[in-house]
Description:
This protein is mainly β. About 5% of the residues lie in helices and about 45% in strands. The chain has three helices and 20 strands. Strands 12-14-15-16-19-18-17 form a seven-stranded antiparallel sheet, with helices on one face. The protein has a six-stranded mixed sheet with strand order 1-2-3-4-5-11, with no helix packed on it. The protein is globular.
Amino acid sequence: MDExxxxxxxxxxxxxxxxxxxxxxxxxxxEFIRHGDxxxxxxxxxxxxxxxxxxxxxxxxxxGQVGLSRVLEHYLLTEGDLERVGGIECRVLHLAPRDALxxxxxxxxEPNSGLLLKVQVLGGGRRGVIEQIAFSDVxxxxxxxxxxxxxxxxxxxxxxxxxxSHEIELSRQGWSITAPEGFSVLTEVERRLGNDxxxxxxxxxxxxxxxxxxxxxxxxxxLVDPEPAQHHGPSSAFMRQVGDARVTVVGxxxxxxxxxxxDSVRFVASH
Length: 271
């Protein structure tokens, strides 16, 4: 773990849906604004706004979508002491993987609200902590000024790129994916790759309740040769060709898991 990045996050739920603003505080300036299912990604240096439909996204942890009992089939849960995060006392939970297909986790949870205030992703062997996300300043239950959810920059005159999507069933498109035991599909969508592009990509998102993996299938994309799985921190990626389609698997799983999912992708038949 050799990188530290900071962000300012405002999250608000008004009964109609979540609203959120995430501003990166170091590195390249970027901002993400979510209102319901729509996410705007702002890139001030490029003067560009990319708009996507988030749909039912995989939050961390995705226990509500997968189920705690299923998660505990693949992780061993132990309860630790109380520790403070951002001045707030939290209960520490340790989830150790029962196999080599996933990482371990240490979670700091505020007992009254259930809010997750700190996460450590743990690698096997001597790797120790490979990623840590934590709040340094937390304010829960305070009124939110709606102005805090607005963009930091005026986007008048910026290029607007839309990536529309709609839900599909990959099996009806002729595709088969075999995810590792414990991983369930959360969503399957087809995305257009740009405003004027006729090319589209199919995406399936899988989760075991903690780890999340995305599988992208791009029919007609440029040919690629399989390469060793790439990994940075807890994220792994693997790419291979299936017929005339490029298949890319990306997720916070060990490289072996990303490759096994990519190797399982098959084009069965047209429907």
